[in-house]
Amino acid sequence: MAGNKPKIQQYDNLVSGISQLLSDAKNNIARTVNTTMVITNWHIVQYIVEYEQGGKERAEYGTQLLKRLAEDLTKAFGRGFSWRNLYNMKEFYIQFPILQTLSAKSSNFKTENLQITSAKFSNKVIASLPKLTWSHFVRLLSVKDEDERSFYIIESAQNNWKERELNRQINSSLFERLVLSKDKKAVKELSEKGQSMHSQQDVLKDPLVLEFLNIKQDDDYSENDLETAIINNLGEFLLELGKGFAFVARQQRISSGTEHFYIDLVFYNRLLRSFVIIDLKIGKLKHQDIGQMQMYVNYYD
Length: 301
Known about the structure:
By secondary structure, the protein is mainly alpha-helical. Helices cover 55% and strands 11% of the residues. The strands form two sheets. A three-stranded antiparallel β-sheet has the order 3-4-5, sandwiched between helices. The protein has a two-stranded antiparallel ribbon with strand order 1-2. A hairpin with a 4-residue loop joins strand 4 and strand 5.
């Protein structure tokens, strides 16, 4: 039997290699489909503009035209061409004047021919755009402030946010929370480069928005209830904490002499290269709470 081990290992490697190949292929197909959809939607409105302009300097994007197109395109191609979707395409074309292809007039363009150029966006924003799906762009259309929108574009690409995650970050006003203590220069940098980590204050958010715990402010709940809710929604909690966080322990026991103490939650941040300790308290903070936290910090220091 021992002589079969090398063959078994070789077979496991074969399965692993094929699995990775198929996984990469599926991801590449998904990216190609998303990119093609984004380019196509942009060019649909380009065609509408050329039709509507008819020699005029500006197109009117008439509601009746969009309604008629929605009806005819739905009959020909099925779902995806409602008046609302065409309206979103129009807004996308206006807000993202970015797409050029080597064969812009041709309906046979290829995704690898995509070139993005725009004086409206920073280089980092432009580099992030191909990583977004059509759902990302539709959600971003509701963000009217250009600095804020650029920030979410960069963060979505860097952190691989799905549309659901992007939606939550916008709804929880992440950008506004980050700019509260920043000057104009820092806000501009935030919109052009995304969130930079220069200090502990850049990594740690204040305040945290924890609506996903489904605990209302006037609910009767204990510290243990709050801790359990965080653990049950750990993925979303890590996302809200920010970049570089990993969960380490719950109710971490530490000892001082013959006494034992329990830290509610312990995380590690790879950017700070340090542990982050969370001690949950309901009500006003007391001096003894501060002393206890200092003991925890000294233990990990």
